[in-house]
Amino acid sequence: MFKRAAIAIFLITLVSANKRPPWHHPQPDPTPNPPCRFAPGYSLEQVVQNPEPFIQDVLYWEGKFVQPGIGSLQDNAANGLTYDGTLINQTTGLTLPYASGRHNFSAASKESLHIMLLAQALTSSPSAARVLSPSDPAKAPEIAFKLLEQKLDTYLDFNRTYPGFGGFLPWYNNTFTKIEPTNDWVNRLPALDNGELVWAVYAAVQALSQVPSYRPLAAKWQAWLDYNAAHSAKIFYQGQGKVCAVATLNQSLPPNDPGQKYTCEGSMLLNDPYEGELFTWYLYFFAPSLSPADKTALWTVKRPMLQSTTYTTPQGPITVQKGYWFSAHEQWKILEMPYYDVDIVRRVFNNNERARTCNSQIKHIPGMYASVNNITDASNQIIGYISAAGIPSIAFIPKQELDVITPYSVFPTLFANRSVGAAWLWNMLQGKKMQNPYGTTESERVDGRGVSSFVSWDSKITTVVALGGGVGGLVREKLKGEGRHGEFLRVVEREYGRVFKDLKGEDIDFCLPKARVPDAGLKDYTNCKAK
Ligand SMILES: *[C@@H]1O[C@H](CO)[C@@H](O)[C@H](O)[C@H]1NC(C)=O
Ligand SMILES: *[C@@H]1O[C@H](CO)[C@@H](O)[C@H](O)[C@H]1NC(C)=O
Ligand SMILES: *[C@@H]1O[C@H](CO)[C@@H](O)[C@H](O)[C@H]1NC(C)=O
Ligand SMILES: *[C@@H]1O[C@H](CO)[C@@H](O)[C@H](O)[C@H]1NC(C)=O
Ligand SMILES: *[C@@H]1O[C@H](CO)[C@@H](O)[C@H](O)[C@H]1NC(C)=O
Ligand SMILES: *[C@@H]1O[C@H](CO)[C@@H](O)[C@H](O)[C@H]1NC(C)=O
Ligand SMILES: *[C@@H]1O[C@H](CO)[C@@H](O)[C@H](O)[C@H]1NC(C)=O
C-alpha cells in the first residue's frame, strides 16, 4: 500500500539570483471558466508559441483537486491536512465514495506540496491564486493563512500525542480529526519526506513574515522548525556523515526522555544526490550538535552517487547527472531550494531536460517518465506502484518498467523551458481520460490501453508548484537574511563543480513530442468530455 514510501528507501530518491522572482510570469486574462476537457482545444503550435493560456486552464482545473474534501480533510473534522489522493469512477470521473475510494493516508512529502502552494499564495502569486481562489484571486493569501494556521494546530497536536517523532511526520492516517501514524509506520519515521516538508515550511515562514499581521503565525512555524531541528541529528544522524533513511523509535516518549532510543532501521542510508538532499541541508544548517567535521562528512558520503554520464542523440552527446532511475521525481529538490542560482547546476539540470525530452521524442514515446501509480484495473484497484520509470541508459538502475507515462514528468522540464514543458503536458493530456473533473489524471499507458483513474498530490501539485516557479525564491530570501545563502552556493558549486566540468550538448534544442498516445478505444470521462 505504501509503495511511495519505498522510494524514500530505495533512493539511496529558476531563474538566477538577480532576475525577477520566477512566479511573475506575464499573465494573460485567464478564461474565467474553461471547459473541463480543454486540452484538445489547443494545438501543439499554440502551446509552444504561448503556453500561458493553456497553463491558466491547467491551474484552474487542478484547483478542483486542492479543494477540501478531495485532496484534504473536510467532513465535520477539518484539520487542514492532505490525503494521498482519491480514486475516481472510471466512467464518470467523479470521486468514488470515501469508504472505497479515498486514500486516507498521506505523508510529509504531500504536505510539502500543499505548503509550497500556500507559501506561493501568500506572496500573491497569480498561479497559486488561480488554483486556490479562481473567482476571487485577492482572497488567496487569506485562504493560505487559515490553512497554515489549521495545519500547525494539527501538527502540534500530533506532537503532543506522539512526541517520539520529534515534531516530524511519519506516514499518517487521516481518517479522523486527529492524525495517527499509519499501521505500518508506528514507531518509524522517514527522513526524505521530512526533508521535503521542512524546506516548504521554511519558505512559508518567509512568506508569512512579509505580511505584518501574519508574523505571529510565522513565529509559531519557526518555533516548529527550531524544535524539530534541535533533535534532528539525534533521530537520524549516525556519525561519519551517515544519515538514516528510516529511524525507529518509541513514539510515546519525548526525544530527551532517558528511555527514548533512536536507531537506524536496517542499513539504508539517505545518501542520494537527488531529493533526499533536502534533509541533508536541514541537518547541515540547523542541527545544533553537528561539528564542522560532521558537516563536511555529510557531503563526502554522498559523493559516490553524484556522477556525470552522457546521453547520446543523433545531434550529439549531452552531459547529464546520472539518475537513480532518471525519474522526474528525483528532481523534487529544485522545487524547494534555489539550485538554479548556481550556474553549473542550472546548466547540468537543463541538460537533464534535453535528455528527458529528446529520449521520448527519439523513441516515439508520447510522454515522459516518473515514478507513479500504475493503471487501475476493471475493479477500480490500482495495480501497483511503478518506481522504476525513467531513462535506463543514464540511470544507476537500468531495469525499468516503461509502459506508463505521467503528466507530472514535466515539472523539471518546466524549469528548463516553460514552453517545451507545457507542450509535453499538453501532449499527454490528449490521451483519452487524461482529464477529469479534478484536473489531470494520474497516469496512462503508452499504448493507450489504460489509465489510472486516480488523482493525487504527487502527480498534480508538483507541476502546479513548478508552474509557480517553486519556492526557491522564498528560500533564497530567508537564507540570505540568515547569512546562509553564500554557503549554500559554495557547497553546491563545490560538489557539482568537482564532477561536472566540460558539458556537452548545451547547444542542442529541447525536443518536442512527435508521437501521440494511440486511441485504443477508451472513452473520456462522461463528466469531462469535449462538447
Ligand atoms: C460509476 O458511475 C456509474 C454511473 O453513475 C455507476 O453506474 C457505477 O456504479 C459507478 N461505479 C462505481 C464503482 O461506483
Ligand atoms: C476514510 O475516512 C473516512 C472518514 O473521514 C471514512 O468514512 C472512510 O471510510 C475512510 N476510507 C477508507 C478507505 O478507509
Ligand atoms: C486508519 O485507521 C482506521 C481506524 O482505526 C483503521 O481501520 C485503518 O486500518 C487505518 N489505516 C491505515 C492505513 O493505517
Ligand atoms: C512537541 O512536544 C514536546 C513535548 O513532548 C514539547 O516540549 C515541544 O515544545 C513540542 N513542540 C512544539 C513545536 O511545540
Ligand atoms: C514506549 O515507552 C513506553 C513508556 O515507557 C512503554 O510502555 C512502551 O512499551 C514502549 N514501547 C515500545 C515499542 O518500546
Ligand atoms: C502495471 O500494469 C501492467 C498491466 O497494465 C502489468 O503488466 C505490470 O506488471 C504492472 N506493474 C506494476 C509495477 O504494477
Ligand atoms: C525553449 O525551447 C525551444 C525549442 O528548443 C526554443 O525554441 C526556445 O528558444 C526555448 N526557450 C527558452 C526560453 O529557452
Automatic annotation (TrEMBL):
The keyword Signal applies. Keywords: Signal. Pfam families: SGL_GH162. Residues 1-17 form the signal peptide. Residues 81-529 form the Endo-beta-1,2-glucanase SGL domain. InterPro entries: SGL_GH162. The keyword Isomerase does not apply. CDD domains: TfSGL-like (cd24165). This is Endo-beta-1,2-glucanase SGL domain-containing protein. The lineage of its organism: Eukaryota, Fungi, Dikarya, Ascomycota, Pezizomycotina.
